[in-house]
Design a protein that fits this description.
Helix content: 40-55%
Largest sheet: 7 strands, mixed
CATH class: Alpha Beta
Number of strands: 12
Distance between the termini: 90 Å
Strand content: 15-25%
Order of helices and strands: HHEHEHEHHEEEHEHEHEEEHHHEHHH
CATH superfamily: Bacterial extracellular solute-binding protein, family 7
CATH architecture: 3-Layer(aba) Sandwich
Number of domains: 1
Radius of gyration: 25 Å
């Protein structure tokens, strides 16, 4: 009997000597990794471009509320997927999430052009009210049909920088090479006499520095994040009036969303909605920050007033708005939906 016990006990003791219990909880071992790629400069949840910060705050809160079942990898500055390819990548299920300037998709998804329609949105509060209005429902439906879901509603106002003279009135644009950042803005700038150059935000610095562009419009956050104050002589801010409001939502591939558990979907939706107010607050802060940063850099700072805005809106209505109404299915109805949001 003694021999028999020893024979079985020794292997068990030896096995116990080499067994090292895992210090990693089971839920962490099985964590789902979600990848977020965007075009903006990277930072932290508390510092840097607010669109990157928004993505990081979203990731942190969702990871916390799912007890680590969902984890995130964030790739700023187009380091995983190039800026203009991110929507298509989500649509195909090749990318999970992005903070994406929706007007970039206007060539393939015409309704997206209404999200950078000059002088259509005139305040952050009005833009956020699209979320529950018929125009927002139409937009959400169109995106979901392409396999992409809106998670956080993010609007950014923007202004312009220029090399030689300020651009405040439509007549100031005549004869200049200009970047508007979207088809509808470009149509209006062309109607004002400008020549159009199409480049993404992350190429704005080199375009202005080299003279490929004489002036360009972009969001307030990008005016600072891309350090355009180093190559510009004039800036027109968005802190008073601007015709430039761009929809840059946090998006998720519908295939990714649908693959989550119902509880995870609820958390993603709730966290996304909770960041709407953060986006508005941060965007407003950036509008003022532009003036502060450019003044410190020695750049001449200008502001658009109501009379200047009215001139731009008149040109926008007979050029960009008309083009959208004529060429996009239900375009006139969509414009009317948008203008009905006060």
């Amino acid at each position: 009997m003694k021999t028999s016990i020893t024979r079985f006990a020794i292997p068990l003791i030896l096995a116990g000597m080499f067994f090292i219990p895992s210090s990693t909880p089971a839920h962490a071992q099985d964590a789902r990794v979600i990848k977020i790629s965007h075009q903006f400069p990277g930072g932290t949840a508390d510092e840097g471009d607010f669109r990157d910060r928004l993505a990081r705050k979203f990731a942190q809160e969702v990871e916390k509320r799912t007890n680590g079942a969902l984890k995130f990898e964030i790739y700023p500055a187009g380091s995983l997927v190039k800026s203009r390819l991110q929507f298509d990548a989500m649509s195909k299920g090749a990318l999970d999430m992005s903070v994406f300037p929706l007007a970039y998709q206007g060539g393939k998804l015409p309704i997206a052009n209404i999200t950078l329609m000059p002088a259509l949105v005139t305040s952050y509060e009005q833009g956020l009210r699209w979320k529950t209005a018929p125009i927002g429902q139409e937009l959400s439906k169109a995106l979901e049909e392409k396999g992409v879901k809106i998670i956080t509603w993010v609007w950014q106002a923007g202004g312009n920088v220029s090399r030689d003279k300020p651009i405040l009135n439509p007549e100031d644009a005549k004869g200049l090479k200009l970047r508007g950042a979207g088809k509808s803005i470009e149509i209006m700038l062309k109607a004002a006499g400008g020549a159009i150059v199409s480049i993404p935000s992350d190429e704005a610095y080199s375009a202005l520095q080299s003279g490929v562009a004489d002036g360009l419009w972009t969001s307030s956050a990008s005016l600072v994040s891309f350090r355009l104050y180093e190559v510009a002589k004039h800036v027109t801010t968005a802190r008073n009036k601007t015709f430039w409001y761009m929809f840059e939502p946090l998006l998720m591939a519908k295939s990714t969303y649908d693959s989550l558990t119902p509880e995870q979907q609820k958390i993603v939706t709730e966290v996304g909605a909770s960041l709407d107010s953060f986006a508005v607050k941060s965007a407003k802060e950036d509008d003022q920050r532009v003036a502060d940063v450019y003044t410190k850099a020695g750049v001449a700072v200008h502001d658009m007033d109501e009379a200047m805005f009215a001139k731009w809106r008149k040109i926008a209505e007979i050029s960009a708005w008309k083009d959208f109404a004529d060429k996009v299915k239900d375009g006139k109805r969509l414009i009317d939906m948008a203008t009905s949001v006060k």
